[in-house]
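PROTEIN DESIGN WORKSHEET
SECTION A - STRUCTURE
LENGTH: 353
TOKENS:
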């Protein structure tokens, strides 16, 4: 996206956000760069590092059922060697990965790392990304609700241009995903990313200094977390990347990603953990766990939320250590013993990782 176009989509809403919210003390804290023009320059430089990502998953990939074989998203250059940060589910079991630059050039890329614990993915183009400076990594520490931010999406091989949209931070809070995923702090913004095709997957989120602060993961209907409808996005903060980046580049993931996986989709349901779906050929299926059952305890310890369920499951010496689940279906309570798997070992491994 050219600077003139960035001005069209960002300058007006940015000026309104700076004028009306957040509070004056927060505006002062976010003042550098102080003027709209200086802020625009910083955001324009950040946006220049955004790329599109096109992925084709391998034939027979387990994740194709939920993610599809053809996937489109975004990423952002974070290192001088062209290393690209994105959301990891885009690249799961990838057979082919391509990067789409802002001048609509398509370059082949290879996976570098996928981290289950955070959800981050790292890619690297096989050809140099000339003239694309990396973005600096920021932090969520000083962000306050109401603070204006910019989300960006990359171009596509079909000819869709990269795009940007202004949004605001709504909340910082823990997030538990139904797919056996939890992070203690996630960023929630609103309005949701609507640029281009409304694609939020891997979209980078920038503060007004042009620093990267998060990577887009989900579209959510309750950005506040207060059980009221407010569409928005959940971003994984880059604060989670900094301690594991070197490890990811060296090992292909972090050590914390080597943890038990059951193969269930669950949600919080009135102080209970309800199983919604059991994956085919998973430890849960082999043990006879069924959709509609409620998990009451893990190894005899009561669990009432996804967070407590996951943390009890992951606090084990080895990913394949047997586990006892106490479950209820209707009036029937039973205990089953199952042997979890290391999730990384269940996926078709792309060449390069």
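SECTION B - SEQUENCE
RESIDUE ASSIGNMENT:
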């Amino acid at each position: 996206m050219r600077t003139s176009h960035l001005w069209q989509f960002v300058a007006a809403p940015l000026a309104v956000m700076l004028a009306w919210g957040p509070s004056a003390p927060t505006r002062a804290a976010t003042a550098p760069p102080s003027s709209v023009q200086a802020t625009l320059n910083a955001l324009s430089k950040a946006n220049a590092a955004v790329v599109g990502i096109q992925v084709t998953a391998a034939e027979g990939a387990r994740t194709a059922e939920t993610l599809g074989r053809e996937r489109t998203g975004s990423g952002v250059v974070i290192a001088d060697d062209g290393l690209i940060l994105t959301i990891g589910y885009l690249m799961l079991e990838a057979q082919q990965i391509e990067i789409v630059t802002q001048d609509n050039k398509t370059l082949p890329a290879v996976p570098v790392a996928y981290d289950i614990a955070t959800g981050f993915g790292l890619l690297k183009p096989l050809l140099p990304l000339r003239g694309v400076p990396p973005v600096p990594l920021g932090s969520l520490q000083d962000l306050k609700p109401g603070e204006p931010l910019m989300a960006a999406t990359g171009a596509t091989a079909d000819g869709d241009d990269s795009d940007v949209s202004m949004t605001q931070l709504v909340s910082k809070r823990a997030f538990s995903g139904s797919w056996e995923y939890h992070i203690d702090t996630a960023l929630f913004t609103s309005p949701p990313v609507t640029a281009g095709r409304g694609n939020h997957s891997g979209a980078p989120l920038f503060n007004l200094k042009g620093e990267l602060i998060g990577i887009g993961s989900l579209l959510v209907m309750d950005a506040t977390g207060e059980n009221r409808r407010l569409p928005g996005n959940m971003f994984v903060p880059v604060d989670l990347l900094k301690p594991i980046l070197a490890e990811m580049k060296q090992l292909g993931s972090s050590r914390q990603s080597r943890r038990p996986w059951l193969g269930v989709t669950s949600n919080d349901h009135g102080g209970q953990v309800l199983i919604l779906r059991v994956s085919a050929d998973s430890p849960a299926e082999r043990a006879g766990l069924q959709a509609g059952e409620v998990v009451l305890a893990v190894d005899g310890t009561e669990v009432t939320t996804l967070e407590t369920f996951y943390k009890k499951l992951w606090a084990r010496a080895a990913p394949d250590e047997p586990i006892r689940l106490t479950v209820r279906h209707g009036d029937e309570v039973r205990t089953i013993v199952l042997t979890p798997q290391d999730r990384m070992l269940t996926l078709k491994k792309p060449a390069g990782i």
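SECTION C - NOTES
The chain has two domains: 1-252, 258-346.
Residues 23-33 have pLDDT under 50 and may be disordered.
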